[in-house]
What we know:
Blueprint: E1 3-5, E2 15-17, H1 24-30, E3 39-42, H2 46-49, H3 52-61, E4 67-74, E5 81-84, E6 89-93, E7 98-104, E8 114-115, E9 120-124, E10 130-132, E11 136-137, E12 142-143, E13 149-156, E14 176-178, E15 181-185, E16 198-199
Parallel strand pairs: 1-9, 8-16
Antiparallel strand pairs: 2-10, 3-4, 4-13, 5-15, 6-10, 6-13, 7-9, 7-11, 7-12, 14-15
Amino acid sequence: MEIRKVTDEAFKKxxxxxxxxxxxxxxxxxxxxxxxxxxxxxxxVEALEQLPVFQELTDxxxxxxxxxxxxxxxxxxxxxxxxxxxxxxVDIPVGRDLxxxxxxxxxxxxxxxxxxxxxxxxxxxxxTAVELYATTLHYAPCNAAEEGFRCVVVLPKDxxxxxxxxxxxxxxxxxxxxxxxxxxxHEDAGIExxxxxxKGENLCVR
Length: 206
């Protein structure tokens, strides 16, 4: 599949590149986090949230709302699923490039299915912070190199934690798998408890 850069015009509907923040200490702390054979996501890491950039992102990027800084590290080449939030997500590759597979919430069908043929791939260079808009479908990053990836993930506080309540009021509620997380999976990924609404190929970047 074609892999564009986040500097490409096509990325603008999905997000933007963030500038004005000093991530030096954040990158140094992230180098201590493991890169596993599979994908490991940790929503909140105290060592990352004690850094000055935590308050800067709280005040500036998120307008004073409580946030969390965690990471998504490991090795992955497949789409597997798409998710979205009611808020923007900040992703920052550390030490090496990664690939994001992105789509638009507006293209989800009324029956909660989504055609994987609509997905677009974007290379995010190491050290480049990107904001993914709330309507951007995304999931775990993909390898741009055999060494795997490290990715800072910034979201509103408590996002992706277990649900306190599982509502059943609307058609969309069946997609809610965690707090502030709506997910559509591909059957091939075998994600337990997820709605398998991705139609088409489970895309691979290699």
